[in-house]
Recover the amino acids of this structure.
């Protein structure tokens, strides 16, 4: 089982940037991918971005392409989500999650971190 702990959320203004971190532990991550999801009040959880831990292959939701960047620090087992040009529609609880590369299902989840974009 993989354990994940998010940090870095907060209150920012439109146009600001924020970096979320996800500390990962519990397993060798070479066979895993890490993803970021978000859930706004009253809405379903949605995919944001994902990265394979070893090769670093990435994919993004259309709504964040060009603004968000997912990355990972292999040496320290930390994943990141760099978010730029934030707007009110990015307000949500952000979760990091992990899945085996050969699986399509994310099975390990963090507790979430709140991101609020408001003037």
């Amino acid at each position: 089982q993989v354990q994940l702990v998010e940090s870095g959320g907060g209150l920012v203004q439109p146009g600001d940037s924020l970096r979320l971190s996800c500390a990962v532990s519990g397993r060798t991550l070479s066979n895993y991918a890490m993803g970021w999801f978000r859930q706004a009040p009253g809405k379903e959880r949605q995919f944001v971005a994902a990265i394979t831990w070893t090769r670093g292959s990435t994919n993004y939701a259309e709504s964040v392409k060009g603004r968000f960047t997912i990355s990972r620090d292999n040496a320290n087992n930390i994943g990141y989500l760099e978010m730029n040009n934030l707007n009110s529609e990015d307000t949500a609880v952000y979760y990091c999650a992990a899945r085996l590369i050969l699986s399509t299902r994310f099975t390990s989840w963090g507790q979430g971190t709140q991101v609020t974009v408001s003037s």
In short: The chain has a mean pLDDT of 95. The CA atoms of residues 22 and 107 lie 15 Å apart.
